[in-house]
Each structure stands twice: as C-alpha cells, then as structure tokens.
Write a structure and sequence with these properties.
CATH architecture of the largest domain: 2-Layer Sandwich
Number of strands: 17
Largest sheet: 9 strands, antiparallel
Strand content: 25-35%
Helix content: 25-40%
CATH topology of the largest domain: D-amino Acid Aminotransferase, Chain A, domain 1
Bound molecules: adenosine monophosphate
CATH class of the largest domain: Alpha Beta
C-alpha cells in the first residue's frame, strides 16, 4: 500500500455543504470512509449524510484547525471557498484539489488566461474596471458582448449581455461595479463539458464529453456521451488533461466548452470539483464522479470511466420536486433527491438519470 493511500476507515474533509458534498459523502461511505463537512450554512444537504458537521465561517481559523485535526485529506465541493481557508488546511492535511486550482477557477480572468496557456481557445476577452472597458470590448469584439464579474458568478448570475455602448454604464452598475471581464459573444451550436480526474501518481482519466442544455442559464439536461462529436471528443479530453496536469492538482476538473458553427471548441469555464453535468455517472458509468473524487482524495487508484450505457440526466428544479412520485413510478428512472426543505424557484432540488 502506498504511503499516501488513506485506507477505508479514514475521514474525507469536504469544504461546502451542498448537494455535491452530499453525493461525495455518500460515495465515501460506500467505500468505507467517513465524511466531515465544513460549511457556514446550518441548513446543509451534505451534513444530513455525513459523520460530522462543522458549521462555521471559512475565515474561522480555530474551527478550520480543529476540522483539520479530524480529517485525513481535504476536498471542496464548491469553488468559491475562500482560497485562504484551503491554503491553511493544506499546511495540515493533503488538499485535493490544491489551492492553486481553486484560486485559478475563482477568478474568470486568471481562469481564461490559464486555459489559453494550456491550449484552449477562448472567446476574445478583456478585463473590465469601468464602463469605458465595456465600450472598448464592443468596439474590439463587435456586438453583443457578455460582461461577467471576475468572482462569485454562477448559473448566469453576475453576468450581463449588452449590444450598445450606451448600455455600458448600467451594465457596470448592475454588476455592482466589480472587477469583471467582457467577452465576445459566441454563436455556438451546442455546449459540452468534460470531467477529468487526476490521482496522486499523476495518472489522468476523463469521462467522455457530454452535451448540456440550459434553460435560463441553469443546466436542465445532459446527454452522455455527447452525440456525434467526431474529432472534438478527443480534442476536448486532451485539452482537459493538459489543464488538470498543468495545475498539478489531484481531484476532479470539469471544463465547459462551446462548439461553434465552424465545429471548433471554445472554452467557457472550469470547476475543480464534481460537476452537475457529471451526475449521469452515478448510474451509467463504471465509477461515479463522486467515487472518483473520493478515490483521488484518499490516494486510491482511479476508477474506470467506461460508459455502461448512454444516458440522459435532468435536473429537478424548484417546485418540480413535488412530482417525485411520478418519477418513481417509472422503473427505469433513477431518482436522486438532495433533501432540501425549501423549493425556491430554479433551485436544484434533485436530478434523475435514465438510459437512452
Ligand atoms: P457562465 O456563467 O460563464 O457559465 O455562463 C452561463 C451561460 O451563459 C453559458 O452556459 C452560455 O449558455 C452563456 N454564455 C456565457 N458566455 C457566453 C459567450 N461568451 N457567448 C455566448 N454565450 C455565453
């Protein structure tokens, strides 16, 4: 057994208490590990299925130190965990992913520069520190442009699309006058993503690229694998492997891309954690993305990413969760609910997987 391998019975520390942490904790339990969740929200879906829960702020140094004392390695289920929290923990226990991966993914400007440096093409972009930069983007990239805050954006939040220089000031105010980036608008034909995993020995495996369909900026459906991708399938996987290796990270890296009319890949963003577009793996891949993360975090060998059967995943949003009995009535539907009490509009309450 490798020195760095943490045998079953050990504890995985997870920063973040959402559904991704919940499914990681469940996968850890399946392999005989226990999970300790650290999250500031009392109401954390992951805490319901975990061995321990520390409810504290990410800036609470003494809570972080006590947490570190109880775990064998640390991972994240949420990329906006302050980098300082992971850096502190990394001095005490293996951090998988490392804080460089987290810092790179947290800032859209760093993220785009990094992804270009490993071979991806990105939409043309420039940093925005005031409305005049948005006007420059319109002049340089043509209309429309998409302006996104550098930090804390998700599911289309912190994002504005505009076409005219006269809209620049309002867009800047709408984004809270926060440092942002402006991107040229990509007239894509489809959106895909790849999830890649890297173990402590530097071995890399990827799940095949999948196709994602969004509604109101929120993922609605994933088709796995993405049909008829041709040469782009291998290209996306190779680039994702470059990206995870370049960060020297251990864990999962999800990368979202657009496919253009000319059949080129344009990278959008990355996340060093399990990803919504990988939920199909729970029922239709040889190893689920959550088990894969546990394997990485605990220093185990990577699992097979073989597709058992092509599949569809759909998110269950807001009130749709009340239809659980209809979904269960179909014996071919694999239902996964996150145990969230409040079914707010657009909130991810669960998902289902089906063979196609
Ligand atoms: P993001 O928050 O960067 O993941 O963007 C959310 C969604 O907005 C993406 O999944 C796309 O559907 C759309 N989007 C983001 N950036 C662009 C772009 N540069 N051109 C066209 N659509 C975009």
């Amino acid at each position: 057994m490798s020195q760095e391998m943490i045998p079953p019975g050990g504890v995985i520390g997870i920063l973040g208490g959402g559904q991704l942490g919940r499914m990681t904790a469940l996968a850890a339990a399946n392999l005989g590990y226990r999970a300790h969740i650290f999250a500031p929200e009392r109401d954390s879906p992951a805490a319901d299925v975990a061995w321990r829960f520390t409810c504290a702020d990410y800036s609470d140094v003494s809570a972080l130190k006590s947490f570190a004392g109880t775990v064998d390695s640390v991972t994240v289920e949420f990329e906006n965990v302050p980098e300082g929290a992971l850096t502190l923990l990394a001095e005490l226990k293996p951090a998988r992913p490392n804080s460089l991966s987290l810092a790179t993914a947290q800032d859209r400007l760093n993220e785009k520069n990094y992804l270009e440096s490993v071979g991806f093409k990105a939409a043309p972009f420039l940093p925005v520190n005031g409305p005049e930069d948005i006007v420059s983007a319109l002049e340089n990239f043509g209309s429309p442009v998409v302006v996104k805050t550098r930090r804390f954006g998700y599911d289309g939040k912190g994002q504005v699309k505009l076409s005219e220089p006269k809209e620049a000031k309002d867009a800047w105010v709408e984004l809270g006058c926060s440092p942002s980036i402006a991107e040229g608008f990509i007239d894509f034909v489809r959106e895909i993503s790849v999830i890649t995993a890297r173990d402590i020995g530097g071995n890399i495996v990827s799940y095949p690229a999948v196709e994602n369909r969004h509604e109101n900026h929120i993922l609605r459906q994933t088709i796995a694998p993405a049909p008829d991708l041709g040469k782009l399938a291998a290209e996306a996987e190779d680039l994702a492997a470059n990206a995870i290796a370049g960060l020297d990270m251990v864990g999962l890296l999800a990368i979202e891309m657009f496919v253009t009319r000319e059949n080129n890949l344009i990278v959008n963003e990355m996340a060093p954690r399990p990803h919504n577009s990988g939920h199909w793996t729970m029922d239709f891949a040889a190893t689920s993305q959550f088990e894969q993360l546990v394997r990485c975090a605990m220093g185990l060998p990577l699992g097979s990413t073989e597709v058992l059967c092509p599949a569809e995943m759909q998110n269950i949003l807001g009130d749709e969760v009340h239809d659980w009995h209809q979904l269960l009535a179909d014996p071919k539907t694999h239902l996964h609910l996150y145990g969230k009490n409040e079914a707010r509009k657009g909130r991810k309450m669960g998902h289902w997987n089906r063979a196609i």
